[in-house]
């Protein structure tokens, strides 16, 4: 069963989508991220993927407080991401009501930080691995940060319970996910894997649902905002996999 995570990406207090992670390639979909989240909740999701893009690009968390507003308004579980640099950042997101926090850049620049966070909060984290091919990308996808499979081996050995894998070349392009690389990622770890980037059709969701036993979740963003399909259709396709 594939769990769906509708994405609410927040920049300057608004719900936006970026193309291939470029800050200048921005489309604003809603001036109110809480309203965007509420529409997903009304459609039946129980999880949301909430990204503080300002924190991801600048290291300054400007939108983290909106996690609390989204949780209170929707009752959904939130996976929070973007600009996590310190244990205090992780704890702040959890205190605002996030169920899980995704660590990206800091995991790649300081792997010991992941061990520290695992000791402090246990399985309530995931490591985000964003890559162009097998080259990892950090700091809002503006810097190269090592080899994807080296990182998978290192963090799997630490006991990371989940990876969020994004094919940067696919993100926001509505060209379908990179299923071959996703399968390679899942084969390289015993952790659960969330797929991110490229979902454009309901058939893409069907493929993801059957591509690997450890690929048990998918983040969906632009396809929903652009009207490629509705969240109701997506949830029905994966047989209610958002529970």
Question: In words, what does this structure look like?
Answer:
- This protein is α/β, with parallel strands linked by helices.
- 38% of the residues lie in helices and 28% in strands.
- It has a single domain (3-237), classed as Alpha-Beta Barrel (TIM Barrel).
- An eight-stranded parallel barrel has the order 1-4-5-6-7-10-11-12, surrounded by eight helices.
- β2 (14-18) and β3 form a beta hairpin.
- α1 (33-43) packs parallel to α3.
- The longest helix is centred in the first third of the chain and has 11 residues, at 33-43.
- The model is unreliable at 19-25 (pLDDT under 50).
Helix segment tally: 11
CATH superfamily: Aldolase class I
Q: Could you state the oligomeric state of the chains shown? A: single chain
Gyration radius, in Å? 16 Å
Low-confidence segments, given as residue ranges, are 19-25
Order of helices and strands: EEEHEHHEHEHHEEEHEHEHEHH
* Structural class category: alpha/beta
Number of beta strands: 12
CATH class: Alpha Beta
Count of structural domains = 1
Which strand-content bin applies to the residues? 25-35%
| CATH topology type | TIM Barrel
